Amino acid sequence: MAKAVRFHETGGPDVLRYEHVEVGKPGPGQVRLRHEAVGLNFADTYFRSGLYPVPLPAGMGVEGAGVVEAVGDGVTHVDVGDRVTYTGFINTLGAYSTERLVPAAPLIRLPDDIACETAAAMTMRGLTASYLMRRIYDFKPGQSILLHAAAGGVGLIVSQWAKLLGLTVIGTVSSDAKAAVAREHGCDHVINYSHADVATRALELTEGVGVDVVFDSVGKDTFEASLNSLRRRGLMVCVGTASGPIPPFNPQVLAMKGSLYLTRPALADYIADPAEKAELASELFSHVAAGRIRIDINQRYALEDAAQAHRDLESRKTTGSSVFVI
Fold this sequence. Notes:
Layout: E1 2-7, E2 16-21, E3 30-40, H1 42-49, E4 58-59, E5 63-71, E6 83-87, E7 99-103, E8 108-109, H2 116-134, E9 144-147, H3 153-164, E10 168-173, H4 176-184, E11 189-192, H5 198-205, E12 211-216, H6 223-228, E13 230-238, H7 252-256, E14 261-263, H8 274-289, E15 297-301, H9 306-314, E16 321-325
Parallel strand pairs: 9-10, 9-12, 10-11, 12-13, 13-14, 15-16
Antiparallel strand pairs: 1-2, 1-4, 3-5, 3-7, 3-16, 5-6, 6-8
Helix pairs in contact: 2-3, 2-8
């Protein structure tokens, strides 16, 4: 019998339960998938805590990779035996499982040179990095970015991709150990915000001009510093709220700080079109397969240890990507 991590109430990591589940046969537009690896993402904690509300009880996780075992009516782009990966949102919730039924539409066939474990570690993070670097802003060599959580899963991919585009990367981290990791993956400068003011240092590193773009996945705690780090008419990209939601603010602040731009993108809107998703995935896979972008899996867990994995993630003990190995 298959097993899955589910939650029957919202709260801390202890609400996660490891349970036996019946999977059944795929219906129209579905496949039955046997997981080989499942991704751990900060968004998972938002579902568990109730920040992203879903009907309960519910499964956990939105990213995984494995082998198709059966297909339902109308499924044509994948077949039994295909190795696939996926990420999504509500439509893929339930990835923390050994086997599951999943809509076929989000599935991406894996090239032979991308392992399932690598795919589970990078599909959400990699596609996020892909749209951030290729869709949000028309980057030119020599421009600069400020990258919060530079030693995290998305941060490590973005920093490597940014160097491929000829950008100067200023990363922020919470410890000296994470600073070393960030430098190894392309950060030109690293700010340890535990004992340095981010905006002051970012301005110093850019000779008082400010950076062209800020990628901020932290939210409440870094929002003001991020705005203060931008050049005139710079772009603030809010890509997450690890420290909590950004409080309401007067848009006049953007004018006062230099006619700044602000956007809050979501991955779902950049992979909704199958052709665009395929293009973003293809470029990502080619970089990884060629070794231009390295995917570091620094934490591996068993599914039954999901609560501990969430504790590690929320306490910022992790670097790079984390996966559940089935």
